[in-house]
């Protein structure tokens, strides 16, 4: 019943998840892309996700509406909280930033697992990264390992002995520059991606939020020019 | 920042989650009830949940719309699959039934954790039960224990040392009769609850699905009359 050639890929539209989709689709796997609409300030992210899903020849791209934003608590979903700008690397590394959406990756992975079970897929890909992770607790390897154990206990497919779910996080130990070089090696087009937490009305990136700064530093260290436009 | 007197209670409107809400609210905790609308065939469940939230003096009751039903794969959300009727206890105990919604409790607990983090709560209550569990893998104690570990790795509150999340499953080792007797002891009103997988157009329970049969057996063994009406 379960087909080992299918994989669910979590796709935000950013540089990391785009590279992850490229990695997943470069092997023998048929990919199913999953994105979430959760009261983000920007929908330009979801447009980027759709372009990447096409580019990586995803068999299907599902955009799931979730109410996570309504629970409040993050600058990314609550317009009364400002997105932090021009933080130093020291500031980024210290503590959890206000752009944290409560346990976002846990919710996303749970949906991915539900879809994987219905599809008969055992592989799930997520573009989390523990080096350039900007202080989010649910990007750490110990979280991903623990989720994989929980997933295999939660699921009927696994309970019936059909196989084991694997949570693939191929970027976990890579620097941003290494991620970009790997994506380029596999032929990925970074002009499709969007990283900014606070784009202007035309969708142009600010160049100043944590996400833009990490991205620009990555391209600089990779010796490449970032193909997207900034304000 | 986190307040140990708040608790998030997952409330489906059934006998088990109703008893769980009664248990949670009988102590020192202020309860926040959370229910899900996920393409169930019946909304009578959600009406029951609202009545129970009122009865248990929940500070707030959130009903979250989720797209889980759209992923397909269950008789509870897909009208092309029949709800199984009149199964023997042997049939119920063997394997995963078609009423299984893919990794439902994992998705529900993930949302509960997101809300708990925003509220500053560290206690989450869920009415899962490993004895009368009707074959669902995500009702087993090893799943709940594994989720609790994952939750504490996923969350900013826990990462910052604010405390540890606890997943309370007070019914885990109880028979249905013991659950009912405990609820009655605490003054719970079972006429508010709804258990049937396949009610008629008036919301009356069928008395024949797995859930009705387990409920009726529980009342019988507790020596009590079930206060709800059947078709």
TrEMBL record, chains A, B:
Pfam families to which the protein is assigned, alphabetical:
QueC
Q: What is the protein's known function?
A: Catalyzes the ATP-dependent conversion of 7-carboxy-7-deazaguanine (CDG) to 7-cyano-7-deazaguanine (preQ(0)).
Q: Does the keyword Protease apply?
A: no
What protein family does this chain belong to? Belongs to the QueC family.
| Cofactor(s) needed by this chain | Zn(2+)
Q: Where does ATP bind?
A: 11-21
Catalytic activity, as annotated: 7-carboxy-7-carbaguanine + NH4(+) + 2 ATP = 7-cyano-7-carbaguanine + 2 AMP + 2 diphosphate + 2 H(+)
Q: Which domain of life is it from?
A: Bacteria
What is a single molecular function from GO for this protein? Answer: ATP binding
Ligand binding (Zn(2+)): 196, 206, 209, 212
Sorted alphabetically, the Gene Ontology BP terms of this entry are: tRNA queuosine(34) biosynthetic process
- Repeat as a keyword of this entry, yes or no, is no
HAMAP family cross-referenced by the UniProt entry: QueC
Instruction: Spell out the protein name for this chain.
Output: 7-cyano-7-deazaguanine synthase
Cofactor annotation comment:
Binds 1 zinc ion per subunit.
Q: Which UniProt keywords apply?
A: ATP-binding, Ligase, Metal-binding, Nucleotide-binding, Queuosine biosynthesis, Zinc
Could you tell me which pathway this protein works in? Purine metabolism; 7-cyano-7-deazaguanine biosynthesis
Organism from which the protein derives: Sedimentisphaera cyanobacteriorum
Q: What is its EC number?
A: 6.3.4.20
Enzyme class comes to: ligase
SUPFAM superfamilies listed in its UniProt record: Adenine nucleotide alpha hydrolases-like
